[in-house]
UniProtKB/TrEMBL annotation:
<dbReference type="InterPro" id="IPR011034">
    <property type="entry name" value="Formyl_transferase-like_C_sf"/>
</dbReference>
<feature type="domain" description="Formyl transferase N-terminal">
    <location>
        <begin position="1"/>
        <end position="169"/>
    </location>
</feature>
<feature type="domain" description="Formyl transferase C-terminal">
    <location>
        <begin position="205"/>
        <end position="305"/>
    </location>
</feature>
<dbReference type="InterPro" id="IPR005793">
    <property type="entry name" value="Formyl_trans_C"/>
</dbReference>
<comment type="similarity">
    <text>Belongs to the Fmt family.</text>
</comment>
<keyword id="KW-0648">Protein biosynthesis</keyword>
<protein>
    <submittedName>
        <fullName>Methionyl-tRNA formyltransferase</fullName>
    </submittedName>
</protein>
<dbReference type="InterPro" id="IPR002376">
    <property type="entry name" value="Formyl_transf_N"/>
</dbReference>
<dbReference type="InterPro" id="IPR036477">
    <property type="entry name" value="Formyl_transf_N_sf"/>
</dbReference>
<dbReference type="InterPro" id="IPR044135">
    <property type="entry name" value="Met-tRNA-FMT_C"/>
</dbReference>
<keyword id="KW-0808">Transferase</keyword>
<dbReference type="Pfam" id="PF02911">
    <property type="entry name" value="Formyl_trans_C"/>
</dbReference>
<dbReference type="Pfam" id="PF00551">
    <property type="entry name" value="Formyl_trans_N"/>
</dbReference>
């Protein structure tokens, strides 16, 4: 089939490579300009560079809703559009232009985790598996009929970076296999159960802020979700920002006030956590590595020279 691809960052790069290696003809690539947004500097392999290397014409757009692009697409006359990690709304007159419509590839097990940063949100929420969905685009974001869906397990100590690499391996194969289903003339794809849908926003600074009333298990997942190369989860110590780089759940249970710098346990420092911590039934967040405002990365046992005092959510 003759394909136009809308894609961005490493997800788009991997998808484009699979299309270039397939039997399909990539007639045009549409991608976003480079961005200074913190999350868009991560996993930023260039779709434009890959297309250019293979002699495929590239169009750069923030939004694909102008007449010039529409006319270009009509001239190219694709059989299908493939969209992967496209960051802005694609209007109906574009996604319905090809005779086979538009196949969108999204890194969650839809209908759950539609929208942005699905792997981070899924890890924070203790999901047992994550995955990738290839679905037909319709007027509601990430809500179209499911062509294919593939899952991978979330390991007990996985970070978002681990989940990225696991799911990235699915993008190329699910795209090519999804196109094979479309090429067969299939249209009887699986309707999404909208009663199970959830839609998540982009991550921002406020989403990294540690709330010590969360249970230690939740905070452990937040720290793993905000692993390198993502911005780290943070709090404040003595009025200065302190990033929590590595942590786990304590073995012992600690009672008291959330945020209290309490006790050395093994190679970490136990910070009291949980809204019900006063009852003494909670595990603590065992902080193992921190990063200071000036960028120094230290073992928690080196940074916390004395026990006592508090870590807070705000200065």
């Amino acid at each position: 089939m003759r394909v136009v691809m809308f894609g961005y960052q490493t997800w788009g790069h991997r998808t484009l490579q699979a299309l270039l290696d397939s039997e399909h003809e990539v007639a045009l690539v549409v991608t976003h300009p480079k961005s200074d947004h913190a999350y868009e500097r991560i996993w930023s392999d260039s779709v434009a560079d890959l297309a250019t290397e293979h002699g495929v014409e590239v169009v750069i757009r923030d939004r694909p809703d102008d007449d010039e692009l529409f006319q270009k697409l009509k001239e190219v006359a694709p059989d299908v559009i493939v969209a992967t990690n496209w960051r802005t709304w694609i209007p109906p007159h574009i996604f319905t232009l090809p005779k086979h419509g538009t196949l969108n590839v999204h890194d969650s097990l839809l209908p759950a985790y539609a929208g942005f940063s699905p792997l981070i949100w899924a890890l924070i929420n203790d999901e047992k598996e994550v995955g990738v969905t290839a679905h037909m685009m319709d007027e509601t974001l990430d809500a179209g009929d499911i062509v294919l869906q593939r899952a991978v397990p979330v390991g007990p100590r996985d970070t978002t970076a681990d989940l990225f690499h696991k799911t990235l391996e699915l993008f190329g194969p699910i795209t090519v296999d999804g196109l094979a289903e479309i090429a067969k003339g299939r249209t009887d794809f699986t309707k999404q159960d909208r009663s199970k849908a959830s839609f998540f926003h982009k991550r921002a600074e406020e989403d990294l802020r540690i709330d010590w009333t969360w249970e230690a298990e939740e905070l452990d997942r937040l720290v793993r979700a905000q692993c390198a190369p993502y911005p780290s989860a943070f709090c404040y110590h003595r009025g200065k920002r302190l990033e929590i780089v590595e942590a786990e759940v304590s073995r012992a249970r600690y009672g008291g006030t959330p945020g209290r710098i309490f006790y050395r346990e093994g190679d970490g420092v136990a910070i009291v956590a949980g809204a019900e911590a006063r009852r003494g039934r909670n595990h603590a967040l065992l902080v193992k590595k921190v990063r200071t405002e000036d960028g120094r990365e230290l073992a928690a046992t080196e940074y916390f020279t004395h026990m006592g005092g508090y870590l807070t959510s705000r200065p």
